[in-house]
Amino acid sequence: MEIEVFDDKVSVLHFIAGLFTCVYPVIFILFLFYELIEFMYRYRKRRGERVKKFIGDLVEYLLGLSMFSLVSLFYQPFFLLVTLSR
């Protein structure tokens, strides 16, 4: 299966949500529910939401999460600044 990653403007928001999940973990739950509801609604209405787009959205989110984790791993002062500012 070929997935589509960063295929629309909302993809950037998925990536940014993944970035902020390390700071605010509740974003993970909100994002997951949003994606499931969007997929079920559009899939049932046959308005273009396919499984590969759903998986692509999850990959975009996980890329943002991975990017923040890698940056915080290699640059500890940045991670401390973000976590202490809460």
Give the secondary structure arrangement, pairings included:
Elements (H helix, E strand, L loop, with lengths): L9 H12 L4 H20 L5 H24 L1 H9 L2
Characterize this entry briefly.
The protein has 86 residues and is mainly alpha-helical. Helices cover 76% and strands 0% of the residues.
Spell out the key features of this protein:
single chain, 86 residues, mainly alpha, elongated
Protein model, in words:
Helix 1 packs across helix 3 and helix 3 (51-74) crosses helix 4. This protein is mainly α. The chain has one domain. The mean pLDDT is 84. Helices cover 76% and strands 0% of the residues. It contains four helices and no strands. The longest helix is centred in the last third of the chain and has 24 residues, at 51-74.
Strand content: under 5%
Count of all domains: 1
Q: What's the shape? A: elongated
How many strand elements? 0
The whole-angstrom Rg is 15 Å
Largest sheet: none
Q: Which class best fits the helix and strand makeup?
A: mainly alpha
Q: What is the subunit organization of this protein? A: single chain
Order of helices and strands: HHHH
Q: Low-confidence parts lasting 5 or more residues at pLDDT below 50?
A: none
How far apart the termini lie comes to 41 Å
Number of helices, where a helix is a run of at least 4 consecutive DSSP H or I residues: 4
